[in-house]
Amino acid sequence: GQIGVCYGMLGDTLPSPSDVVALYKQQNIQRMRLYGPDPGALAALRGSDIELILDVPSSDLERLASSQTEADKWVQENVQSYRDGVRFRYINVGNEVKPSVGGFLLQAMQNIENAVSGAGLEVKVSTAIATDTTTDTSPPSQGRFRDEYKSFLEPVIGFLASKQS
């Protein structure tokens, strides 16, 4: 199997992105998740052969849902600009999206998917949910979404299934 580690950038006296990439390689960590686009980290990943999950911050959902042009621009600036040398595995739209912005999630995902396809990129589009979005999880086959999440996550599941993401 392969190991992946989230690369968080909040903190003081953090190592440089190039030092982080070197550490990943030294420790044979083959996958990375960035919680948002960071030009320094993306540049450091060039040629590293590390597979990347790049998050679209939840704070961008409304803007990207409301405009295909904005989604196209986001993909151009943060993915297509680095396509030579960075191994994008997934674009993760939102992280543990709350019901207050959940209504924007599906459209943002669709717009990002359209932008990815339009750019000729072979990158899957997905999202990440918090563990507290589900209830009655034992056994897992009995699990269900909490009511406040169901209205926006069920259509997302359909979208993901249709794209085999």
Automatic annotation (TrEMBL):
Record keywords: Glycosidase, Hydrolase
Entry EC number(s): 3.2.1.39
Keyword Electron transport tagged: no
Catalytic activity: Hydrolysis of (1->3)-beta-D-glucosidic linkages in (1->3)-beta-D-glucans
Gene of this entry: BGL2
Gene3D superfamilies (UniProt xref): Glycosidases
Protein name per UniProt: glucan endo-1,3-beta-D-glucosidase
Molecular-function GO term, any one: glucan endo-1,3-beta-D-glucosidase activity
The organism's place on the tree of life at top rank: Eukaryota
A Gene Ontology BP annotation from the UniProt entry: carbohydrate metabolic process
Family: Belongs to the glycosyl hydrolase 17 family.
